[in-house]
Design goal:
By secondary structure, the protein is of the alpha+beta class. The protein has helices at 3-10, 24-35, 54-68, 93-110, 128-136, and strands at 46-51, 80-87, 114-118, 143-144, 148-152. The protein has a single domain, classed as NADH Oxidase (3-Layer(aba) Sandwich), CATH 3.40.109.10. The protein contains five helices and five strands, in the order H-H-E-H-E-H-E-H-E-E. Strands 1, 2, 3, 4 and 5 form a five-stranded antiparallel beta sheet that branches. The longest helix is centred in the middle third of the chain and has 18 residues, at 93-110.
Length: 171
């Protein structure tokens, strides 16, 4: 099996991150993968914000938890967070960001970095406490966050095998 197919078939969500940091070089590669994702009509209306300081990520996680009534929410104690955002008026912004996130997840897998999709910001980006933090991280006021990539190294180093099933008809 080729490397690309192996990466796709072995990618799993990680929810037990260690304290080991993700290097700047690795984060730059993940952003490069994200930027190369397809976008509708090649408009590339997304923007990427990377948080590596645990204090910043914890502050955002706490604000999300408070807003959603989920005390103690911590985004799985990850080492880094990539926040793709997109112009709220972009007709295909959600789709473009989903493609970018998938590229991030696959690239992370290929580098031995664990990842998990975090979707709690969608729908609460304009809540005052959340918007204040997004502005602090220079995410434009007219942007919405549909999902984020929490990143780090797996604490256990193990990933559970999941059987994937779907109904498929090939004609």
């Amino acid at each position: 099996m080729n490397e690309t197919m192996n990466t796709i078939l072995t990618r799993r969500s990680t929810r037990d991150f260690s304290d080991k940091a993700v290097s700047r070089e690795e984060l730059e590669l993940l952003i490069k993968a994200a930027v190369h994702a397809p976008t509708a009509m090649n408009r590339q209306t997304f923007r990427f914000t990377v948080l590596t300081r645990r204090e910043d990520i914890d502050e955002l996680a706490q604000a999300i938890g408070k807003t959603l009534g989920r005390e103690g929410y911590d985004m799985y104690k990850r080492a880094a967070l990539i926040i793709p955002s997109n112009d709220r008026d972009s007709l295909y912004g959600r789709d473009d960001n989903a493609c970018a996130l998938e590229n991030i997840f696959l690239a992370a897998q290929s580098l031995g970095i664990g990842s998990v999709w975090i979707n709690q910001l969608h729908g609460i980006c304009n809540e005052p406490e959340i918007r204040k933090l997004l502005t602090k991280y220079e995410i434009p006021e007219n942007h919405v966050v549909y999902g984020m990539a929490a990143l780090g190294h797996s604490k256990s180093g193990e990933y559970r095998k999941i059987e994937r099933t779907a109904q498929v008809k090939i004609f």
